[in-house]
């Protein structure tokens, strides 16, 4: 009984700190540095807008509570649609949708973003009615091959994803302010998605920092 209890506790801790998929893999013994798998996935980068400015005027305890409120909404929706949280990065997070069928992965990612945009709008209205600070969020989506597994030093590892697809997703996130859009996705996600499931509108072709070729970017149309 003690052994079973310890294993259950380990499962719960790994699931909370690493996520469901990564936690299971580590528990099965995927502990070796450099043990990476090549998989295809749709990457999602979520970020709170104007966080640096808010951090300068909001007391720390209120700031953390606010960030946790937004993460609670975001993480729940990502996991409900089959996504995996890879990493929290300050006021943002990186997630992936790694379905075997990449059309399913793209549809799940787009469904998640469309629902989150509406949920966060409603959440902001509630916060403002209660006199609490509120902020917008940005979402960036790209699809491609990633390396998924253990990275780091011998005595400190991180189970995460790296590769050009991850880098490009971060570049797309940086286009929120220049384009004035809080949802930006790559042409590859647009091609993978089921036609007509979402109204995907072209934002034009752009050169992205550190990327050799121009990319056509899209957003999910949201009626005013």
Any descriptors?
alpha+beta, 8-stranded mixed beta sheet, single chain, globular, 45% helix, 29% strand, 8 helices, 224 residues
What do these coordinates show?
There is one protein chain. The protein has 224 residues and is of the alpha+beta class. It is built from eight helices and eight strands; from the N terminus they run ααβααββαββααβαββ. It has helices spanning 2-18, 20-27, 51-57, 60-80, 102-129, 164-173, 176-179, 187-192; strands at residues 36-48, 84-89, 92-97, 137-153, 156-162, 183-186, 200-206, 215-220. Strands 1, 2, 3, 4, 5, 6, 7 and 8 form an eight-stranded mixed β-sheet that branches. β4 (137-153) and β5 form a beta hairpin. α1 packs across α2 (20-27) and α4 runs antiparallel to α5. The longest helix is centred in the middle third of the chain and has 28 residues, at 102-129. It starts with a helix and ends with a strand. The model has no long low-confidence stretch (mean pLDDT 86).
Short description:
The chain is an alpha+beta fold and 224 residues long.
Number of helical elements: 8
Helix content: 40-55%
What is the SS-derived class? alpha+beta
Q: Summarize the main sheet.
A: 8 strands, mixed
Distance between the termini: 58 Å
Count of distinct strands? 8
Estimated radius of gyration: 18 Å
Order of helices and strands: HHEHHEEHEEHHEHEE
Q: Per the principal axes of the C-alpha atoms, what is the gross shape?
A: globular
Mean pLDDT score: 86
Assembly annotation: single chain
Low-confidence stretches: none
Strand content: 25-35%
């Amino acid at each position: 009984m003690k052994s079973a209890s310890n294993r259950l506790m380990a499962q719960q801790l790994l699931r909370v700190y690493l996520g469901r998929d990564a936690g299971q893999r580590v528990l099965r013994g995927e502990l070796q540095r450099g043990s990476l798998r090549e998989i295809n996935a749709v990457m999602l980068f979520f970020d709170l807008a104007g966080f640096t400015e808010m951090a300068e005027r909001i007391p720390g305890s209120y700031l953390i509570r606010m960030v946790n409120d937004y993460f609670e909404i975001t993480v729940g929706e990502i996991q409900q649609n089959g996504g995996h949280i890879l990493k929290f990065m300050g006021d943002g997070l990186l997630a992936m949708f790694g379905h075997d069928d990449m059309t399913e992965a793209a549809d799940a990612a787009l469904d998640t973003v469309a629902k989150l945009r509406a949920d966060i709008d409603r959440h902001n209205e509630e916060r403002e009615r209660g006199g609490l600070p509120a902020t917008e969020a940005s979402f960036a989506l790209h699809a491609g091959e990633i390396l998924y597994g253990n990275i780091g030093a011998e005595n400190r590892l991180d189970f995460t994803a790296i590769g050009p697809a991850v880098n490009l997703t971060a570049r797309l996130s940086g286009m929120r302010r220049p384009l004035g859009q809080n949802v930006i996705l790559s042409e590859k996600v647009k091609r993978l998605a089921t036609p007509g499931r979402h109204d995907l509108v072209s934002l034009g072709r752009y050169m992205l920092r550190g990327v050799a070729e121009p990319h056509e970017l899209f957003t999910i149309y949201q009626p005013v």
